[in-house]
Amino acid sequence: MLAAVAALAVGCSADDGRSETDDTVTSSAAESSAREPGRVRLVNLGDSFASGTGVRPLVEDSPIFCLRSSRNFAHIVAAEDDYDLVDVSCAGADTGDLTEAQYEGVPPQLDALDGDADVVTVMIGGNNEGTYGRAIDLCGQAAEADPLGAPCTERHGRDLIDPVDRDIYPAVREALRQVRSKAPSAEVLLIGYPWLVPEDGGCYPEMKVAAGDLALLRRLQVAVNDAGRRAADEEGVRFVDMLPPSAGHDACAGPQRWIEPMTASGPGRLHPNAAGQEAIAEQVRKALAG
Known about the structure:
Elements: E1 25-26, E2 41-46, H1 48-51, E3 58-59, H2 73-81, E4 84-87, E5 119-123, H3 131-145, H4 151-182, E6 187-191, H5 214-234, E7 238-240, H6 243-246, H7 274-289
Helix pairs in contact: 2-7, 3-4, 4-5
Active site: 48, 271
Domain SGNH hydrolase-type esterase: 45-279
Organism: Gordonia paraffinivorans
């Protein structure tokens, strides 16, 4: 794979692993539009999990609505392995934003693929059909009246799970097909989403989900994960499964969490914190070295 072209690692600054957000921006030596001869070019596509929403500082001159962190997993990988980086990930993106402008001044993400990419990382699908946001909203409302039961499962279970195979799977597969078409010689990685909630117990109200509805949210995550894996397999893309390594690091895991809870301040709620982005970077690097 790409292990042979990896260069000396460059260390990243450490912190307490929490989500940090302010208006500070920074430039990134890893992000460049002009390729240096002999260096691997990494292009990062995707949504807020890919952009590093909630982890400061932001990339200088990046679109403010994209909340693109200079410490997202792609920046970490590029720094560690001395890659050229083109990062066009953007908060709120769904698969349609790969081919259509998401905001004024934010071109389609696939425009970043000019045939010069060696590696393409893609983390997308969770915003299609409002999948995760809708589930959290509906289950949060239901939990207010019955925090110990399973009100969301009873009212919305099928409505949340059914669209995954019907809508998300084909959309992600088509997105990967288009990435492959634009970057036929690149190694393409689809990164799955880490666990948001634990298997049992919960941490209401930090995560406003009824105890009996944790299983529903986890089934939803498994369904999205499996849809991504199938789409990746069918398009010749490597799938980076974040569910196994993120076990025990969900939003209820206290100091060990990789996901910020609903009570966190700023846009980092329900998103990977700095430790979570580092964990994703580690799995991406393992996949590239394998």
